[in-house]
Amino acid sequence: MSLGNLTALFIKSAPPGKHEDGDGLRLIKREDGGGQWVFRYTLYGRRREMGLGGLKALSLKDARDVASGYRTLVAKGKDPIEHRRRQRQDAMRSRHLLKDVALDAFESRKADLKGDGTAGRWYSPLEHHVLPKLGQMPVAEITQSDVRDALMPIWHLKAATATKAANRLRIVLDHAAALGLDVDLQAVAKAKQLLGRQRHQVTSIPSMPWVDVPAFYASLEDPTITHLALRLLILTGLRSRPVRFARLDEIEGDIWTVPANNMKARVGAAEDFRVPLSKEAQRVINLARPYERDGYLFPSVRKGVISDATMARLMERRGLEARPHGFRSSLRTWLAEETDAPHEVAEMVLAHLSDSKVVRTYRQTDFLDQRRPLMDRWAKYCTG
């Protein structure tokens, strides 16, 4: 057939089948009256076919214009299918999807985050509760309704996490505006109005009564990484992070100096924290030494150190309500009920800040010598 063989009138009444317009442009008519435009071409001896669009979307004139553009590409030795694929990729990149802007915002804030944000606490509320639903949306199209729908499942159920996710999203939208994108900076605030006041009551992490600690400690008899890490956590009263990231070069004799960046961010506490080690704590550390990798006492199976959930899962599998962080409460209650430790010394055992900044400045002590006998007594109690 010659170029331009088809007519608009013929297309309307054309029977089902293939109808050539010429020079590679073909109409495939369906039984239901609809149809599809196809462009056929040969490049470097290879015959290829690409769909151009449906009959409803493209008129005969439009289809000829599109095919003409692709014929020009073929004449230049370029593959139309590859050209279109690259165009679509470029278009997606230029749309500034929320997931990409969120990552960019995270990168720009790493210097302000503890350990450059490696623990993932800044990014995880977005990653788990916002990006699965909104990540593929262009950031400029996000409305308060989208934000509300994303946060609604956790708004009352996980109030603290939902608040964090909302705050992180607001920062990401601010970042998008700084990039020059046209975003609704009030989307999060308006979404909060739609969601209403949170009903969730803040509850503390379940702890084990201190009278039950010796029995649990005795059950951690296998010299595995998880058992040893839990033992050291119980004996020192530290949070999970400093234990998980414990390094041999931090320990000298009976003193473990935890770097400031592994301690919870405390007002006015930019210094390292010294932990007096009982004989039992030193024994646990010696048992963990064979596992040491890259200086870390508690490495994970693959890379890095054991995760935040490793110790918690062990307790969960045993059907316990208590969680590792709760042993800090167990220790603090034991100190209050079974010792005559002064308040400020007991608080320092847990690396809590008591008194005002002025008082702490003048005091200039971490009560190491007063804490040492307390930790020895706690270790003796835990080991029965």
TrEMBL record:
Q: Which domain of life is it from?
A: Bacteria
Instruction: Supply the name of the protein.
Output: Integrase arm-type DNA-binding domain-containing protein
Q: State the Gene3D superfamilies in the record.
A: 1.10.150.130, Integrase, DNA-binding domain (3.30.160.390), Intergrase catalytic core (1.10.443.10)
Please give the biological process terms from Gene Ontology that the record holds.
Answer: DNA integration; DNA recombination
Q: Where is the Tyr recombinase domain?
A: 201-375
Entry similarity comment:
Belongs to the 'phage' integrase family.
State a single Pfam family of this protein.
Answer: Arm-DNA-bind_3
Q: Which GO terms describe its molecular function?
A: DNA binding
The reply on keyword Cytoplasm is no
Family matches, as InterPro entries: DNA_brk_join_enz (IPR011010), Integrase-like_cat_sf (IPR013762), Integrase_catalytic (IPR002104), Integrase_DNA-bd_sf (IPR038488), Integrase_DNA_bind_dom (IPR025166), Integrase_recombinase_N (IPR010998), Phage_int_M (IPR053876), Phage_Integrase (IPR050808)
Q: Where does this protein come from, organism-wise?
A: Palleronia pontilimi
Q: Which UniProt keywords apply?
A: DNA integration, DNA recombination, DNA-binding
* PROSITE patterns on file: TYR_RECOMBINASE
Keyword Signal among record annotations: no
